[in-house]
Amino acid sequence: MKQILKSVALMCIISLSVACNNANKQQTENTTAKAASSQNLELDGAVGKLKAVLQVPELKDGETCPLVILMHGVFSNKDFPIISKLANELQQKGIASIRFDFNGHGESDGAFKDMTVPLEVKDALAVYQYCKTLDFVSNISLLGHSQGGVVTSLVGGELKDAIKSVVLLAPAAVMEDQTNAGMMMGVKFDPNNIPESISVFNHTVGREYLSTCQTLNIYENAANYEGPVCLIHGRADQVVPYSYSEKYDQIYKNSTLHIMEGETHLFDQDMLTAAHTAVDFIVKQTAN
C-alpha cells in the first residue's frame, strides 16, 4: 500500500513539474521579441502617394516605443545620408522612425515644379495621422533637415503638445527672407512679379513655391509649439546662416541650441556627432 502511495505521489510530482514547464514555456512564447524590421510603405499624401520607410526596433509582444517622423530638405529625399543615419541610430536605441519622400521628391508622386512648403506640411500631417494608428507607438516626435526643418517647425506649431519633442537640423527659415528679397539660393527674380518658374540647381521651381514662401510666417507659427526643441546648426553653413537657428532659439520657450564648429549645411564634416546629439536628445525626451 505504501509503495502504491509513493508511486501516486511521484506521478503527481511529475505531472506538476510538466505543467509548470509548459506554463513557463507558454509565458516565454507570449513574451517572444519581434526582430527589428524595416518596411517600405506607400501612404496617401497631399498630391498623391508618398513612398516611406518604417523602421521598428526589436519589441516584445505588447511592448511600445517612441517614434520619430524624419523629414528631408528640398532637392533631397528620404535616403539623404543624415536622415538614413538617424533612422538606424534611433532603431539601435529602441526608437522607431518613419522617413518619406515629400511630394515632387524621390519616389513620391507629384511634380517638383508644383511642390510648395504648405503642401509638404500636408504631407507631414498625413504621415503623422498614419503613425497615430500604429499600436506600438507610445509617443511621436518630429525631426527635419533644412526645408524639412521648416516643415517640422510648422507642423509642431500646429500639433502643439501632441508632439513629444522636436529636432531641427539647419532649418532653412532663410527661405522667407530670401524670397521676399527676390532670391533663391543665388538665383534672382522679381519678388513683386514672380515668374512662372525659375531654375535652381537644374530643378524647375514654380511660382507657387516662391509666392507661398513669402508669407509662411515661420517663426510666428513655430512658436506655438512649447515642448522641448533641439537645434543643431553648422557655423560654416553657407546655405542657411546659423543665425536662423539662433532666432528659433529665441522664439522657443524650451529649446537647446548646438552650433557645430566647421560644420556645413549637409552635416558632411562630422555627421556622427550631429546624429548622436539629435538621438541623445530624443532618447532623453521620449523616456519621460
Name of the CATH architecture of the largest domain: 3-Layer(aba) Sandwich
Give the number of DSSP strands. Answer: 14
- Find the CATH topology of the largest domain: Rossmann fold
CATH top level of the largest domain? Alpha Beta
Major sheet details: 8 strands, mixed
Keywords: Signal
Pfam families: Hydrolase_4 (PF12146)
Protein name: Lysophospholipase
InterPro entries: AB_hydrolase_Est10, AB_hydrolase_fold, Hydrolase_4
Secondary structure layout plus pairing:
Layout: H1 2-30, E1 33-34, E2 37-44, E3 49-56, E4 59-60, E5 65-71, H2 81-92, E6 96-100, H3 117-132, E7 137-145, H4 147-159, E8 166-169, H5 174-180, E9 183-184, E10 187-188, E11 197-200, E12 203-206, H6 207-213, H7 218-222, E13 229-234, H8 243-251, E14 255-260, H9 271-286
Keywords: Signal
Protein name: Lysophospholipase
Domain Serine aminopeptidase S33: 65-178
Model description:
With about 290 residues, this protein is an alpha/beta fold. The chain has helices at about 1-30, 80-90, 115-130, 145-160, 175-180, 205-215, 220, 245-250, 270-285; strands spanning about 35, 35-45, 50-55, 60, 65-70, 95-100, 135-145, 165-170, 185, 185-190, 195-200, 205, 230-235, 255-260. The strands form 4 sheets. Strands 2-3-6-5-7-8-13-14 form an 8-stranded mixed sheet, with helices on both faces. Strands 1-4 form a two-stranded antiparallel ribbon. It is globular and about 60 Å long. The model is unreliable at about 5-20 and about 25-30 (pLDDT under 50).
